[in-house]
Amino acid sequence: MKKLISTALIALVAIGANAQSTLPVYQDETKPMEARVKDALSRMTLEEKCRITYAQSKFTSPGVARLGIPELYMSDGPHGVRMEINWNDWAHAEWTNDACTAFPALTCLAATWNTDMAALYGKSVGEEARYRKKDILLGPGVNIYRTPLNGRNFEYMGEDPYLAGRMAVPYIKGLQSNGVACCLKHYALNDQEEYRGHVDVKVSDRALYEIYLPAFKAACIEGDAWSIMGSYNQYRDVHATHNPYLINNILKGEWGYKGAVITDWGACHNTKEAALYGCDIEMGSYTNGLTSEASGGYDDYYLGTAYLKMARNGEIPMDVVDEKAGRVLRLIFQSAMNAKKPFGSIRSQEHLDAGEKIAEEGIVLLKNGAPQPPKGERRAGCILPIDGARYKNILVVGDNATKDLCAGGGSSELKAYDYVSPLDAIRKEFSQSTVDYAQGYESGRSRYDGADYITPEHQDSLKAEALEKAKKADLIIYIGGLNKNHFEDCEGGDRRSYNMSYGQDAIIDALVKVQPNIVVVITSGNAVAMPWLNKVPALIQNWYTGSHGANALANVLSGDVNPSGKTVFSYANKLTDYPAHQYGLPSYPGIMPEDMPKSLAADAGADADKNPSSAYLIANAEKIKKSIPASLSTDKINTDFDARKHYGKGNEAQIYAEDIFVGYRYFDTKKKPVLFPFGYGLSYTSFKYGKATASATTISGDNGTITITVPVTNTGKVAGKEVVQLYIGDDKASVVRPTKELKAFAKVALNPGETKNVTLKIKTDDLKFFDETNHAWKVEPGTFKAYIGASSADIKSTVAFSYK
Known about the structure:
The protein is an alpha/beta fold. The protein is built from 23 helices and 29 strands. It is globular.
């Protein structure tokens, strides 16, 4: 009997093995990826190879039904899985089961300065996307914070490319561990929403490689991003989504990228360019990606019938057709056809807790002064954390205290599951106190297609109500800032002012006069003007923190959580302090080429090679600035857009005249005062840095390293976390370089009285600049300095070393 059973089992195993061996190679996951792609291509017709390169609905692209190769289902991200959109129009599908965990915006994630949080974020949002049967999540975004007016800065990770890259890599790995592809965006130079569909960016090679590309490179190479989204704008007179320089030369050439390039929705503009210059999947053509509809069908796309016809006629080489289809197949095999992917989960307590934890580590304490004491007593201590026993009557003021800030904002809108408002969270956290609420101002519905009109009389009445209630309050918590409305933190348009909207500056000024004990909480993805800063004792940068982020805010306010977030962009005193806004309209938002001052266009090389030399821009910054007519460089740009309306004609050129000097690279080098520097954030405890030491005094060769060690002690009374930052400065170089640039960081948790040695590694690559003459990264022998600090402006220790 045993022999019969054994024989039967052997037969079954043999049958299984035979079945496995008879699988077509492209279906056999034990075979190498490239062999599967090659086999599938050999079985496909020309029509099938062309058809998988463009959409079949708003958020899907076809597979090869005849061969059992599945479709690709995509969803907007990156902060959660967007609610379902109709198959063939932009309306919400009104499903009852498409709510998701809303995770904090990527500015908040970056502000944690904690790569473990990035990995947790990616894994969690990937599980939700997998459960919703999505193959591609459109995110994360790693565009650079060039101007605080950019409506989509909240979707990105700040002004520093190193920080953005370090945070993007674990996010992508966590996301793709679920068999869900990331679609890294927006490649590249899409650093504003104004004129985004056509503005032609003129930027030096050096700025391109040192500032705007490193985060993309890290995400593609280290993160192994399976797909990447081409951006709307132009570069060197060609749209970025099918650009020979950005895609063929750099992405797929220099970086050896194997993934698929997906257009932003409506970013494709030319069949031959799309075919030859690296575009692999075309989505949303003839629409604005948000609201407008196309008059034709999907076959009318640039990679539709026109592409097939050119391929048939031999105008497009067959190796190009195969290469493009192969990239799409590789993406399908990694995601939709991946038999090993997990099932995922959604709206779990685990995910809600993950979002709250990320928010707790990302919230930034910007200011914490002493409260106004009772009459006759002296000021002492700090107003935060809030002592519930001291403040029996707390007044919460501000529209953002109750507004659902997961809705609106454009394509990143979410139907948030179990959304908790700041007001509800504060009332729960301070249940021993009486917590009253006054709206203070009204912003209308969250929408990205205009704005609700609110009468001045209504706004005045809300302000008056807040001031009346303030008379009875012991403490005010003001929760305002920006929101997800059009011309705020929202896709499709930039902010119209560096100041907060809806008269909030005046409201804060008035509230302080009534009750000076006020904590201002700015909810935003951008810096704002703060004319009231010296009048308020406490200030918190709160970000958009998702479903349970308000609990994190309440925990920080009460002291249950010690804030440990650090800023990811510089907060300038005024808009025109930002280098992008010092060169007038040619620098932001761009003007028609024929209106460009001739001296500027010729001197910067814009007419010659469409790629101005960074050396010229740096050496002649003041000359360029003076060459711009006053009409094009008005300081009123932050409040009056009339000066630029004339230039919205459809093909604006834009010069990144500040070159490599973006954010703190400019402010630190020029010693320009700011409200708050890059990498800054306070704690409820204090930290002491010891003297930093280096493992060597010299680094050499292409693979050399030096380890910097610095002891950090928690000298306060509560546990806390500190972000230790390492910047590198080149003492003397053949080119102009910033005073210092971020090259390493570590977040360390310390109990009261505890000391830990923090180690940070410097590599030869960290010393290099991009040499435009030889189109290569270069390090020059000489002396360098490692600056170790708590922010870009708060340097605690310096170590000199040399490169030989």
